[in-house]
């Protein structure tokens, strides 16, 4: 059996409590993760949340955060830490949360919240709203990366995450507004 349950999600920590930011590719997980760093959160991962199946703690996924080219404009304070990388003919920026002088890499932490990122609704400001356990469970199943490997015990892991977590949907939009909403709602 695989040692960690994997979810396609970013994972951040503040005050010893972990939050999983679920979302499909291009949902804004990495960008929001870096913005939350500026609010005092530490980073476990920007793409894969590793869940210990017994403790339900989230663990670091040791790789740099990858940001799109436009990130250069969004994070002027972090420019000394952004390293260019060409991939598929596009410029990306690598950011190592554990870099000297930055040191935003988190230690394993128990889950406290699950946030499902969704596209902004045209004409609507970003909004953070509670969601049901059913909606959170569906989002977790969709973003699970190795549920089949775990079989029925994988479903138990997801149920445990839902039961232990505050559950939200974030209609993405203005980065500062999203970060402020999460900072206010999370421990």
Briefly say what this structure is.
Helix content is 28%, strand content 33%. It is an alpha+beta fold and 187 residues long. The chain has one domain (5-185): 3-Layer(aba) Sandwich (Rossmann fold), CATH 3.40.50.
Query: What CATH architecture would you give?
Result: 3-Layer(aba) Sandwich
CATH class: Alpha Beta
Q: Helix and strand string, N-terminal first?
A: EEHEEEEHEEEEHHHEH
Helix content: 25-40%
**What is the CATH topology assignment?**
Rossmann fold
Biggest pleated-sheet summary: 5 strands, mixed, barrel
Overall tally of structural domains: 1
Strand order of the largest sheet: 1-2-9-5-4
- Which shape, going by the Cα principal axes? globular
Residue stretches low in confidence (pLDDT < 50, at least 5 long) are none
Distance between the termini: 33 Å
Number of helices: 6
Q: What is the percentage of strand-forming residues?
A: 25-35%
Strand runs, count:
11
CA gyration radius, whole angstroms: 16 Å
Helix/strand class? alpha+beta
For the residues shown, what is the average pLDDT? 93
